[in-house]
Amino acid sequence: MIDFKNKKILITGASGGIGNSLVKKFISLGGNVLGSGTKVEKLDSLKKQYPSIKIKKFDINEHSRIEEFIEDVSLELGGLDILINNAGRNIDNLSLRMKDDEWKKVIDVNLTSTFLLTKYSIKKMLKNKFGRVVNITSVVGHTGNLGQSNYAASKAGIIGMSKSLAIEYAKKNITINCVSPGFIVSDMTMNIAEKVKLYLTSRIPMGRLGSGEDVSNCVAFLSSDQASYVTGETIHVNGGMYMS
Q: Which of these, 182, 175, 134, 174, lies nearest to 158 by C-alpha position?
């Protein structure tokens, strides 16, 4: 049985659809969880749902403050064992219309911030000779998608980065893996036009959109002792939509 008792866990993007499911899963399995995000009202709502959670407002795009943020998280939790890089953003546009700033903002948040959060978290994990990092990527990082060249590049970059870090820290009992969701029920997908949702569903062999729990189940496994010999991998959670 998976058990996160005495494990200190940071989940970024904790107040979103997948983030909420991650929080619920790790708390239900006994974890000491700190959830971060940018919207105070959503973090407060999370605290009401899960009284044991610690919350911290932080914009991961503030790169110069990430080291300090990880230090604060570690002090509040009493250490740091598991990092779930879930926060991200998208700004969609066709490539010829995409502004330089639209490209940069997505790369900065999705890729650069993930690298820096992982880098400074690993420093903490090295002291305990234990660590788990799970990065949430996307099926789009494997397949590409119309109007999402910036988003696809950032998510594909996370996968390559994770493999490199996995090699660097494998002997230190620190694993770095990715979970690549397909189309998951969330605020983002709920805003998609109904005919587009029907088209997307038709491309999924299981015939349905995924749930946050589908993703959190996979993340929990990769974060657990049961996955101690799994590193540098990407597990696809997409109902068969994409198979590598």
A: 134
Nearest Cα neighbor of 209 from 237, 176, 167 is: 237
Please report which helix (H) or strand (E) contains residue 96, including its range: none
| Residues annotated as catalytic (active site), given as ranges | 151
CATH of 8-183+211-237, one of 3.30.1330.40, 3.30.1340.30, 3.40.50.720, 3.30.365.10: 3.40.50.720
Give residue-wise pLDDT tens across range 116-146.
999 999 999 999 999 999 999 999 999 999 9
DSSP secondary structure letters along 57-92: E--TT-GGGHHHHHHHHHHHHTS--EEEE-------
Q: Which long-range contacts (CB under 8 A, 24 or more apart) does 47-50 make?
A: 49/20, 49/24, 50/23, 50/24
Q: Which residue has the tokens 């700004």?
A: 91
Task: Evaluate if pTM is beyond 0.70.
Answer: yes
> Under DSSP, is residue 175 helix (H, G, I), strand (E, B) or coil?
strand
pLDDT tens-place string over residues 16-52: 889 999 999 999 999 999 999 999 999 999 999 999 9
Domain ranges, ordered by start, for the chain: 8-183+211-237
| Structure token pair of residue 244 | 């590598």
Largest CA distance in the chain: 52
State the Cα–Cα distance between residues 160 and 172, nearest whole angstrom. Answer: 20
